[in-house]
Amino acid sequence: MRVALAVAVLAVLVGSAVVAVRTPPPGIAPAPAAAAAPTALPPVLFDPVAPALQPAAAVATATRLDVPRLRISRSSLTELGVDAAGVLIPPSSIAVAGWFTGSAVPGEVGPTVIAGHVDSSEGPGIFYRLDTLRPGDLVTVGRSDGVAIRYRVTDVVSVPKDAFPTRQVYGPTPGPELRLITCGGEFDHSARRYLSNVVVSAVYADAS
Length: 208
Prior knowledge:
Elements: H1 2-19, E1 62-67, E2 72-80, E3 97-100, E4 110-115, E5 119-120, E6 123-124, E7 138-143, E8 148-160, H2 166-170, E9 176-188, E10 193-207
Parallel strand pairs: 2-3, 4-9
Antiparallel strand pairs: 1-2, 1-7, 3-4, 5-6, 7-8, 8-10, 9-10
């Protein structure tokens, strides 16, 4: 009987010890938990420097045209765009040709497109004799950065305006190419316009 009572008392004491929570006396704050050791940082070998802003590279433009067979020498080029219908707007003067700014910069991959008038009521235009070019003839296009790109003529064709080969003229090419365009063929006196276009194609020869 005494042994059983002693065992019961011991169990109660042990259970009390397990669940008891020691609280600090009033007015005494608990000791703070030990702070974690700071993570070591790698050594700074160089002072951080903000990258310098690089100016945007200037884009060259086509500015000059030389076609020896046509006796065109260092003729200036204007810049051409398209109208609301997407049709190329010709130069305002018959005396100069123009570079279509939506085409490739001379010397870059793609077709560089240059257009000029064949003539007008004022007389012959800069491309009056464009259809006399022959394969092998050289054409040089000067750029605004001083680089001159030479092309070698590969083809000269006359195509009806209502069947203009847009993809062949303006479409992608494997390398730098050149297109020279003017009016040609039969002249419609009632409509006061030529019915065809003369298109000269040329491929990259060299640069200087």
